[in-house]
Amino acid sequence: MADTLGGGIKITHSASAGRPADALIREAIRKEARLIVVGSRRVQGIGRVLGSVSNSVAQNAPCDVYIADTYDSG
């Protein structure tokens, strides 16, 4: 994937314990990330009231956040 994005882009991944949004933010801080890519499942109902992982990451991340639409209507 990095090849299609252009030279000089480093993509990393890791596993971490804890609440998903908190874990993503901790890893972004630890890795000094410039971008977090997270999916969105279009949470509705009570889940939307309580907040979603992508929403929490977007509001609290130390870097830019790209929320990819991963919703499958079929």
Automatic annotation (TrEMBL):
<feature type="domain" description="UspA">
    <location>
        <begin position="6"/>
        <end position="67"/>
    </location>
</feature>
<protein>
    <recommendedName>
        <fullName>UspA domain-containing protein</fullName>
    </recommendedName>
</protein>
<dbReference type="InterPro" id="IPR006016">
    <property type="entry name" value="UspA"/>
</dbReference>
<dbReference type="Pfam" id="PF00582">
    <property type="entry name" value="Usp"/>
</dbReference>
<comment type="similarity">
    <text>Belongs to the universal stress protein A family.</text>
</comment>
<dbReference type="InterPro" id="IPR014729">
    <property type="entry name" value="Rossmann-like_a/b/a_fold"/>
</dbReference>
<dbReference type="InterPro" id="IPR006015">
    <property type="entry name" value="Universal_stress_UspA"/>
</dbReference>
